[in-house]
Amino acid sequence: MNADILRSELQFKAVRSSGAGGQNVNKVASKAVLSWDVNASQAITAEERERILDKLASRISNEGVLQISSEADRSQLKNRTNAEKKLFRLVAQALEIAKPRKATAIPFSVKMERLANKKSKSEIKQNRRKPNF
């Protein structure tokens, strides 16, 4: 992934933020909406594109556009940088290759502890029975 090329492909749009904030919310478009066309991107390889489309499928539209918004701050510039950081974090997580899990045997002591617990439960239930004379 080439970060410089990716930055040049990003499109930002400023929108009015929602929620509480008084007059500032009504006047200023401080929410930043970042759009990145994953399908047309030159910053990633075909293999990386497939991995991103697979892992971030719920966040990507049918046209292949990934949208991220940020409205945490009152400043539009800070929200733009926050949205950019979110994008890079998401892409980095999507490109991570998980190590395969190694199957391990159940330790002997754990097996013995389970059997001891079963035996004690069995004895408790045996003691609840009526005596058989």
Description:
The protein has helices spanning 3-9, 23-27, 46-55, 76-95, 108-128; strands at residues 11-15, 31-37, 65-70. With 133 residues, the chain is α+β, with helices and mostly antiparallel strands. A 3-stranded antiparallel β-sheet has the order 1-2-3. The longest helix is centred in the C-terminal third of the chain and has 21 residues, at 108-128. The protein starts with a helix and ends in a 5-residue tail after the last helix. The model has no long low-confidence stretch (mean pLDDT 90).
Summarize this structure as a short list of keywords or feature phrases.
elongated, alpha+beta, 133 residues, single chain
Estimate the global geometry from the Cα principal axes: elongated
| Percent of sequence in beta strands | 5-15%
- Relative helix content: 40-55%
Separation of the first and last Cα atoms: 80 Å
How is the main sheet built? 3 strands, antiparallel
Helix/strand structural class: alpha+beta
Give the H and E element order.
HEHEHEHH
Unreliable spans: none
- Report the radius of gyration as a whole number of Å: 28 Å
β-strand number: 3
Give the count of helical stretches: 5
**What is the multimeric organization of the chains shown?**
single chain
Arrangement of strands in the largest sheet: 1-2-3
- Overall mean pLDDT: 90
